[in-house]
Amino acid sequence: MTYSIKFWAVVPAAGVGKRMNADRPKQYLQLNDKTVIEHTLMRLLNADVFTAVAVAISEEDPYWPELAIATHEKVITAAGGKERADSVLSALKAIRTLASDDDWVLVHDAARPCITAMDIIHLIETLKNDEVGGILALSSHDTLKSVQGNCIVDTLDRSHIWRALTPQMFRYGLLKTALEEAEGNPAITDEASALELKGLQPKIVEGRPDNIKITRPEDLALAQFYMEHQND
Ligand code: C5P
Q1: CB-ligand 1 contact for 15 (6 Å cutoff)
Q2: Which CATH fold would you assign to the domain 7-229?
Q3: Ligand 1 pocket member 211 (CB < 6 A)
Q4: Which member of 99, 164, 167, 215 has the lowest number of beta carbons within 10 Å of its beta carbon?
Q5: What residue ranges do the domains of the chain occupy?
Q6: Which pTM value belongs to this model?
Q7: pLDDT tens across 37-93, in order?
Q8: Between the CA of residue 30 and those of 64, 67, 111, 170, what are the distances in Å?
Q9: What DSSP line would sit under 186-219, residue for residue?
């Protein structure tokens, strides 16, 4: 696929992943023949659309320098930050002299190793002429409850509720400004929320359910299952 505009991937990978209860951050756990982050980066690189992939890594991370992919010609390492949004902003700053404000940036969690080229191209093709950009998302099949303590206080109208996945695709300049303006705001748990804070309305693009985020120990087996059944 060739495009007249550049696409950059940004991968926040500076989290510790406490819910995995593992001896190392979840992105370095083994999944078949590679670590989680190697799968994620290989899939982004193999999609063959990105000028480079900027990866935000914690400064105390001893595992990253051990991976061959850390020195790949299209991989740029940036310092991770306190929160996910700080890590994304740091990676954006690392490509500041290379990217133009109008270039597209696709931010993708290191912990989502099952991302397919199909989903990446679907997102790009749907949004490439959009003013604001948007995200891959999934509708909810379950009935959703609003809860206080352990009591249900409301049942939400699930036709209006979507689960935000990654990649999240925005123009470089707009995303950087939105994250800078939102710095320190705990409500910013993804890129779209930083744009929403500016009064913008990012689009949702339906993604594939196999694009899971590794969060709990059982997710590794699920990711393995999905990988075995993906054929792209
Ligand atoms: O913890 P959670 O799964 O929500 O993190 C999503 C992604 O953000 C992960 O890839 C994680 O490594 C990254 N992250 C980061 N910097 C932080 C916290 C999380 O890059 N300070």
Answers
A1: yes
A2: Spore Coat Polysaccharide Biosynthesis Protein SpsA; Chain A (3.90.550)
A3: no
A4: 215
A5: 7-229
A6: 0.97
A7: 999 999 999 999 999 999 999 999 999 999 999 999 999 999 999 999 999 999 999
A8: 14, 12, 12, 31
A9: TT--SHHHHHHHTT---EEEE--TT-PPP-STHH
